[in-house]
C-alpha cells in the first residue's frame, strides 16, 4: 500500500476533521477521549446516541460496499476516517462489534434475507452486538468450545445451552453472535456453527465481571436453552470455524489505524506529563519514550502493509503479527506511564478513588497480552500459519 495520501485524500481528511469538530460538541463533548479499553462502561446511553449521530453523517459502515448500504470508501479514506476520529478524541465505539465484525461477516456469508434484516439496524446505530466466542475452558483455544445448540424440529428454533465469558458490553447489547457446537460428539474445529442470538430473553443471564480498574465492561453470559430462529444460522451447520476465522480477519481491518491513533493520544499524554514534571530530563525515560514512539510507527507501517491485500476476511501473514505486536507495545506503554508519573501514580486522593486515565491504562494493559488470544497462542499462530513451521505437539 502507498503510505502517502493524495490531494483528494487530504481534502477528505479535512472533511472528516471538520465534521468531528462540529458534532463532538454539546451533549457529546463529555465523551471526548472516553469509552476506550478499560473505560467501556462510561455513559453507554450517551454513546449509543453518538452512534446515531454518526449514522446521520453516514459514517457508520462507511467502508462497506454501496450494495450493503455503506459509502464504499477506499482503504485510504477509511484509514483517514479512523485516524481523524481518534485524533479528535472520538469516544470508544458502542457499535464497533456490529460495524467492524459481524456486519462484514453477514455481508460475506449471509443470505440476501439475512443481510436485509441485520445490516440496516447496524448502519442506523439501532442494534448493538456482542461476541460469544470465549468460554471458561476455551479462551484462546476456540476449538475447545463446549456450548451446544440443537435444532428443535417442532418450532424450527435453535436451542443453545452453555456459557461464554469475557463478553464485552453484553449487558448493553441487543444481539450476540455465538459460536456453538451443533454436531453431537464433534471435537476440535468440526461441528461448530455460527448463530445470531437475540439477547432479550429470559433464557439468557448476563453476569458482570469487575476488573482491576473497577469497571465491568466484561461479562459472563449463561445460555439455558436460549432460542433463536432457525434462519439465524450464518452459512451451513458445521461452517462455524471457517466463518469465525474470517470474522477475526475482519477484526484486523482498517479500525486498527484508529486504535493506533488512540495509542498516540495516550503517548502524547505521557510526553506532556514528562515535560511538565521533569521526567523528560531522565535519559533512561527519554530513551523509553523514543522507543515507544518508534514502536508505534512500526505498528502503523505494518498495518498499512497488512491492509494492502484483499478485504475479505482472509488473514495475510503480516496480520498474524498484529495482536502480539500491539499488545506488547501497549503493555510497555502502561509501565512507562507509571514511571513517568513517579511515586504519586500509586496514590489516589480520596474516595471514591477514581483512577486517572493513565492509572487505568496501566491496570487495563495487564490484560492486553491475554484477551483476544494470549501471546503464547499468538506465537503459535505466527509459527504455524505464517511461517509454516510444524504444529505444536498436543
Automatic annotation (TrEMBL):
One Gene Ontology term of the molecular function aspect: flavin adenine dinucleotide binding
InterPro entries per record: Acyl-CoA_Oxase/DH_mid-dom (IPR006091), Acyl-CoA_Oxase/DH_mid-dom_sf (IPR046373), AcylCo_DH-like_C (IPR036250), AcylCo_DH/oxidase_C (IPR009075), AcylCoA_DH/ox_N (IPR013786), AcylCoA_DH/ox_N_sf (IPR037069), AcylCoA_DH/oxidase_NM_dom_sf (IPR009100), Mycobact_Acyl-CoA_DH (IPR052161)
Statement: the UniProt record of this protein carries the keyword Flavoprotein: yes
Cofactor annotation: FAD
GO CC terms in record: plasma membrane
Start and end residues of each Acyl-CoA dehydrogenase/oxidase C-terminal domain: 238-386
The Acyl-CoA dehydrogenase/oxidase N-terminal domain, residue ranges: 9-126
Keyword Transcription regulation: no
Domain Acyl-CoA oxidase/dehydrogenase middle: 130-224
A Pfam family matched in the record: Acyl-CoA_dh_M
Keywords annotated in UniProt: FAD, Flavoprotein, Oxidoreductase
Protein family membership: Belongs to the acyl-CoA dehydrogenase family.
The protein's name: Acyl-CoA dehydrogenase
Phylogenetic lineage: Bacteria, Pseudomonadati, Pseudomonadota, Gammaproteobacteria, Pseudomonadales
